[in-house]
Structures are given as C-alpha cells and as structure tokens.
Amino acid sequence: MPFQLNPNIPLYYQIKQDLLRKIEGGTYEVGEQLPSEHQLMELYGVSRPTVRQAIVELVQEGILVRGRGKGTFVSQPLITSNAQVFTTFADIMQATGVHQEAKLIETKRIKACEKIAEELKLSPGEEVYEIIRLRIGNKEPLVIRTTQISSKLCPGLIEEDLETNTLYAILQEKYGITPAGAVQSFQAVKASEFEANLLNIEIGEPLMLWKGIVYTQDKTPIERVKALYRGDRFSFTIRQGRDFEAVSGNDNMGVGILGDLG
Hints:
Shape: elongated
CATH superfamily of the largest domain: Chorismate lyase-like
Structural class: alpha+beta
Largest sheet: 6 strands, antiparallel
Number of helices: 7
Distance between the termini: 54 Å
Number of strands: 10
Strand content: 25-35%
C-alpha cells in the first residue's frame, strides 16, 4: 500500500522527511543502499521527478551519496573542519580517525603567467611546478588538490615521493620551508567530468572550491593552491561574532585558512 501523503504539503518534501526519519531511526544504516527510484515510486505512489527531487536534496545536504552506476547510499558522517585554523588534510583525517593517503595524478613544469607570477612574487615566464594529487580517506576519494610552486624555491620537488610523504613534510625536511598561514577564498561549484571521474561521483555534483596562497611566517608566498572537496563529505565551520574573533593580522593573514594544506 502506498505511503499516505498529505496533498497540502509538497510531495517531494514529505518523501524527503520520511527518508530522513528512516535514516535517523536506523531503518537505513550508514553505507546501506536505498531502494531504487522505481521502488520508491511504488512505495510512495508518486512520479520519478518527485522521488528524484527528494533524493537530490538529501544528497546536497550530505545525508545521501550517489555511487556512479551503483545507486544511492546513506552517507558516512560528514568530515568537519575549522576553516579558521591552519591545518592539513592529514591532520583532519587523523583527528577524525580516518586513514589518509594520496594518489599523484600529474606533475608538470609550466611558465608563470602574469597572475601566477604576481601571486607568487615571481617574474612572468619563470618556471613553476604544477602538482595535482587526489587525497583519499579510508580508500574513498575526497579531495583534488592542485598546487603551483616555484621550481627555484624548491628545485627537484616533482622528483620527490609525493604520494607517501605529505607536501609540507617535504618542504620542511628538504627545503627548510615552514608554511605558517594562508589567505583563502571558497565557493560552491559543480563537478566537471574529469573531477567526477577522480572523485567517483556524478557529473554536476556539488564541490567546495578553496583557492589561495600559502605563506611563510614572514609572508613569503610558498604555493598557489586549488582544492576541490566533495560537498557530500565535508563541512567547514567559521566562527563569527564579538566573542569569536578570528585571528588576523596584516593583509588578513590567517583568515579563511584552507583545510587541505599539504
């Protein structure tokens, strides 16, 4: 018998709330696959677009996750991070008890355009290393991290083992460079085909894009960073208000710190 719906309340919203209650009540447990869209259509006596809207909103809220070609599953608890604290991906994973690793996607040498040169305080045309890595937690792809860093600052960096060792461990141990802060910005974006393939999600799924420059204590720029976080797996906290003043200094150093440094 179809689920009884109230005609005075949007149908998709009632289905969404019923699924949420079942997830919170343990009917559907973490990691468990939900019934197919067709099965949910029969259960609730509604059309596919109505079921799909309910599922899409739960995915966007991080309650459900879609596996490409596999169905829809109850998501793992969100990984939370304080966006105002200078930390690393490895630190976040360790704090949440998640085993972390990295997969090297690409390394190459590029010439600094005017924008890159300005942000890294280089001359246009100087050589820059570009490194793209996939950050993984408990075997699950979570973040795509692209870094651009002067080859003059870190000669031979792309010859190092960037999968076993964290970038910042290499910078500190081999080059004597210690990252101390960053100026960052973030925005919501949709996953491209390339990004979706790496993160094992559907094209167009929400991602959180972090961009910025990482500095040493004396505000010498070290690297230019772009990190794409899966929107269904991460939640970032920013404190605001008189009782929660963010640490800041000249040029807003320390504000909006990226949660995937290194």
